Amino acid sequence: MRRLGILLSGRGSNFQAIANNIAAGRLDAEIAVVISNRESAPGLQIARSLGKTALAIPSRGLDRTLYDQMVLEELHRHTVDLVCLAGYMRLLSAQFIAAFPRRILNIHPSLLPSFPGLDAQRQALEHGVRISGCTVHFVDENLDSGPIILQAAVPVRDHDTVDTLSARILKEEHRIYSEAIAIVLSGKFSVEGRRVRINAQ
Ligand code: GRF
């Protein structure tokens, strides 16, 4: 089990970090398909430049069930084992989640459950927290919810702006997303309630 399906809506730097780690032999997986709901997503261009199968499936005007069915078809067509949301700006339907039980991951730029939703870095700055970070978690039907696999913390500095804090967090995102994928692909974990227990070798 190691074929990844990447869903993204924008820049694609997390996808690129995963692709780099695979290319460098640090992550034993392959990218089966990259799908975006936005044709103009820079992440799709990156995927194409890397020679990956990259599909735009525009979501505009389609209801969630129908749209998710179309995406699911492509994921199955490319025999995807693990779905990685990487800046994918849509909630998934129950039917989508049921199609990949404990096989959908997301990365979020805060220490969940603090600051779910949009502009997490801005939320953290405005709240005045001294520590923020990022979270990789299993996806369930709620926004930025689901059992947490890995987190990384970064300091929030007095002179931080949304940009400087985001950049510090992003560096950690690029590191822990591949680590979390490796854990899930290894199968060496269990989920008890909300707690993910990672079984060391
Ligand atoms: C990242 O900050 C990620 O945590 C959030 O959306 C952003 C996507 O960035 N879910 P990129 O497209 O991977 O560069």
Beta-strand segment tally: 9
Q: Span between N and C termini?
A: 19 Å
Largest sheet: 7 strands, mixed
Structural class: alpha/beta
Percent helix range? 25-40%
Strand order of the largest sheet: 3-2-1-4-5-6-7
Number of distinct helices: 6
CATH superfamily of the largest domain: Formyl transferase, N-terminal domain
What does this entry look like structurally?
The protein has helices at 13-23, 42-49, 64-77, 94-99, 120-127, 162-186, and strands spanning 3-8, 30-36, 54-56, 82-85, 104-108, 131-138, 148-155, 189-192, 195-198. The chain is built from 6 helices and 9 strands. The chain folds into 2 domains: 1-101, 3-Layer(aba) Sandwich (Rossmann fold); 107-201, Rossmann fold (3-Layer(aba) Sandwich), CATH 3.40.50.170. Strands 3-2-1-4-5-6-7 form a 7-stranded mixed sheet, sandwiched between helices. α4 (94-99) links the parallel β4 and β5 (104-108). The protein is globular, with a radius of gyration of 16 Å. By secondary structure, it is an alpha/beta fold.
Topology:
Blueprint: E1 3-8, H1 13-23, E2 30-36, H2 42-49, E3 54-56, H3 64-77, E4 82-85, H4 94-99, E5 104-108, H5 120-127, E6 131-138, E7 148-155, H6 162-186, E8 189-192, E9 195-198
Parallel strand pairs: 1-2, 1-4, 2-3, 4-5
Antiparallel strand pairs: 5-6, 6-7, 8-9
Helix pairs in contact: 1-6
5-O-phosphono-beta-D-ribofuranosylamine binds next to helix 1 and strand 5.
